[in-house]
Each structure stands twice: as structure tokens, then as C-alpha cells.
Write a structure and sequence with these properties.
417 residues, mainly beta, 16-stranded antiparallel β-barrel
């Protein structure tokens, strides 16, 4: 297992917080250590991206060429969802100053598929302000279902994002929060770069974050559930580093969307969860995000014959959590994402994907649980209409589905100073 500089910094920061310099003028800092050991075994009856073998991601059912990853049958064993961290609390004249820092072992980016430290949470809260990396203001964390599978439904908003946010209203019944967050964006240009008339030009395109994403949510709590509505707007721009007066592929667009979510507790043993998300160019805020920007042909424009546009989409999620006995519960979760792809997007582009889990969780004693779950995911790629002007033939997008069985053992622990 690799240990990154992030892990070293986390250890040093822990030491500083645990053994602070003594001061007669500062109130004491309460420190709580938290952790979770998560052991997973999974059998995939088909195949998916081996970098995410223990997680259910519809986007990774087919590879970047639109084909299955391998032959049928894949066994995996992992501890990557395990995490460790600490919380601190210090009283001030303006309310408590709270910090939270957590690392998990999921990896990502250049370390995808490895057991590698990743920052899960890193933020401070004080006087209604939040600074750092935590759940996006656009997200409703209380509708994330308690599945055996770690990753969770693809079609719900789930993004821990770097932000500055403020709670305008913060009461037991209502909450209004606004934030400025890291916008980020991804494109669907990859396949065009491999064997395409303008591959050299597209290789010069880079995304630039010129403005933060503006996020907002309103939440209302009721006796037997809650309702939340969120909004996000972001500016997306890309720059052609090889632009000339005769050829410039630079461009810009806006992404925006709404997230309606809520829960209903008809009895003390049943909890129903759901969300609907729609918009364009904000897919990176989804749990299993796809490209935000797609290719649109513009052959009549000799300077910019290929342009980009924010991809419209909608996503739904529904789940039920039922307590079957004192130590036994079940969770059923379904989710679906549909991109309204453009005709000029290739047959390797993600168009739609579904997620389904049916699981049982047994908690023999506090802090320990065993889970068993059936999992299904599928992906449909877009149908490419063809572009004769660019010598690209029409192509049918592939469909592929996987079925998995997963079992896990989870141990949660905490200790205060």
C-alpha cells in the first residue's frame, strides 16, 4: 500500500491537535478519533472496470472504447472503503469551532484501483460558516441510502466538494444555505482525440475554472420526514492553447440544475427516500458523474468546426430502509441517469445507466455489522448518427449489464480525549 504526502500531513496535523501548546487563555479542545474498518468480498458474474471491482458504477460497466472489460466472472476482495479521522470542538464567543478530517483508502485519479489514501472530509465550521471539503450545498446527505455497497446510487447528488458556505437560516425546522464551490468539469472529447481529423487541435484544449459554482438549498423538516430543494449554477470554459486567427476551438457555456429530494417515515420501522435531479452540464455533482460537456458538430464554421455544449440530463433515485428485527434491516435502492446526448457524440459516449441493490444488514452488537447484497448495473451508450463531413461513419452504441453478489464486514469505532 502506498502512503502519500497527504497521509504524512494528516499524521502531523493529528499530533498538533492532540498535543496542543498549553495556554491559560484558550478554552480546551475536545478531540474525537473516529474510524471504520470495511472488509468487502464481491463476485461479478459478468465484468466491469477492475479499478472499481468492489463498487457498483454504471459508468464503468463498459470501457472507453464501448466494450466490456473482460470475460465473465470476476472475484475481488478489498478494504478500500475503510477510513480514519478525527473531529475537534472548541468553544468560542461566537459558538463552537468544529473541524473534521478524514482519510479513506479508495484512491482515485492517477491512483485509481489502488489502496491509497484519499481526503474524504477536511473542513471547519464556525458561526454558520463552513470552509473546506465536505458535502456540497447542492447535496442532500440525508437521502443517501444505507446500502451494503459502498459507492451508492449513481443518480443522486453526492459530491464532497471544496467550498465556502454560509447558513442563512439554521433552525430545527428550516435551513437555508448558500455556497461558492469548486466548479470542475469534464468533457466527452477523449475518443475524438485518437483517430480524428482534428485530433491534434482537440489535444490542445484544456478546461479553465474562471468562476466558482454557486450552490443553494432550502430544507424543511417535518415530524415524519423532510423536503429539500437545491440549485447549482456554474460557468464552464475551455481554452485552445494552439488557437490561431484561422482556427480556434475555445468556447464557453453554462451549467445549471435543480435537486429535489426528501424522505418519509410512515412508521418507526420504514423509511422511504427519493430524489430527482435535472439540468445540464452539472453531471460532475452526481455520485457516478458522466461528462458535463459534449461535442457538437459545427461544419459551416471554418474557424470552429467542432464546438462544445452542456449535456442535458435527468436522474432519479428511490430507496427503502426497513427494520425487520432488532438487529436486522433491509435496504432496496434504485437509480437511473439519462443523458440527452447530441447526434454528434460518438457511440462510446454514455447515454444512460441504471443501478439496483437489494441487501440485508445484520448488527449483532453496536459498531459491528455484516451485510449481504445482490447488485445490478447497466449502461447504454449513445447511437452516433455519423458525420460524413468529418469522414466518421454512423455507429450503434453498445448495451451491457452486470450482476454481482457482495458481502461485507464493517467495524465502526470512536474515542474521545
Amino acid at each position: 500500500m502506498k502512503i502519500s504526502s497527504t497521509g504524512i500531513i494528516a499524521v502531523l496535523l493529528s499530533i498538533i491537535l492532540i498535543f496542543p501548546a498549553k495556554s491559560q487563555n484558550k478554552p480546551p479542545i475536545d478531540v474525537e478519533f473516529t474510524g471504520m474498518f470495511w472488509f468487502i468480498t464481491t463476485y461479478n458474474f459478468q465484468s466491469s472496470d477492475p479499478n472499481w471491482a468492489e463498487m457498483l458504477r454504471p459508468t464503468r460497466v463498459l470501457d472507453d472504447s464501448g466494450r466490456p472489460f473482460a470475460d465473465n466472472g470476476l472475484f475481488s476482495i478489498s478494504v478500500r472503503p475503510s477510513r480514519v479521522g478525527f473531529n475537534t470542538r472548541q468553544a468560542t464567543t461566537k459558538g463552537d469551532l468544529i473541524t473534521r478530517f478524514e482519510l479513506d483508502l479508495v484512491g482515485g485519479g492517477s491512483n485509481a484501483g489502488e489502496t491509497f489514501f484519499r481526503v474524504f472530509n477536511a473542513y471547519a465550521e464556525w458561526n454558520r460558516w463552513t470552509f473546506g471539503k465536505r458535502n456540497s450545498v447542492f447535496m442532500d446527505g440525508s437521502v443517501v441510502p444505507n446500502t451494503v455497497e459502498f459507492f451508492g446510487p449513481n443518480g443522486m447528488v453526492l459530491l464532497r466538494n471544496i467550498q465556502v458556505s454560509y447558513k442563512v437560516v439554521d433552525s430545527q425546522k428550516s435551513q437555508v444555505q448558500i455556497g461558492l464551490e469548486n466548479p470542475s468539469a469534464s468533457s466527452d472529447l477523449g475518443p475524438f482525440r485518437e483517430d480524428f481529423t482534428f485530433r491534434e487541435k482537440l489535444s490542445d484544449i484544456v478546461f479553465t475554472n474562471k468562476l466558482p459554482a454557486l450552490t443553494f438549498h432550502y430544507r424543511r423538516n417535518f415530524e415524519h420526514g423532510h423536503f429539500q430543494a437545491g440549485w447549482v449554477t456554474k460557468y464552464i470554459s475551455w481554452f485552445d492553447r494552439g488557437s490561431t486567427p484561422a482556427s480556434d476551438f475555445s468556447g464557453e457555456t453554462w451549467g445549471y440544475g435543480i435537486n429535489i429530494s426528501g424522505s418519509i417515515n410512515p412508521t418507526g420501522k420504514i423509511r422511504l427516500l427519493g430524489s430527482v435531479v435535472t439540468g445540464r452540464g452539472i453531471q460532475n455533482f452526481l455520485n457516478d458523474g458522466t461528462a458535463d460537456v459534449g461535442v457538437k458538430a459545427n461544419p459551416t464554421n471554418v474557424i470552429t468546426p467542432i464546438n462544445g455544449a452542456a449535456i442535458p440530463f435527468y436522474a432519479v433515485m428511490a430507496a427503502s430502509e426497513i427494520t425487520l428485527a432488532e438487529t436486522l434491516s433491509s435496504t432496496v435502492a434504485f437509480s437511473r441517469v439519462v443523458n440527452q446526448t447530441f447526434e454528434s457524440q460518438l457511440s462510446t459516449s454514455f447515454q444512460s445507466g441504471s443501478y439496483l441493490t437489494v441487501g440485508l444488514i445484520h448488527r449483532p452488537i453496536p459498531g459491528i455489522s455484516f451485510g449481504l447484497e445482490y447488485q445490478h448495473a447497466n449502461r447504454q451508450n449513445a447511437n452516433f448518427a455519423g458525420a460524413p463531413e468529418f469522414e466518421l461513419p454512423a455507429a450503434q452504441g453498445n448495451f451491457f449489464a452486470i450482476n454481482k453478489i457482495q458481502a461485507n464486514f464493517v467495524y465502526r469505532f470512536s474515542k474521545t480525549n
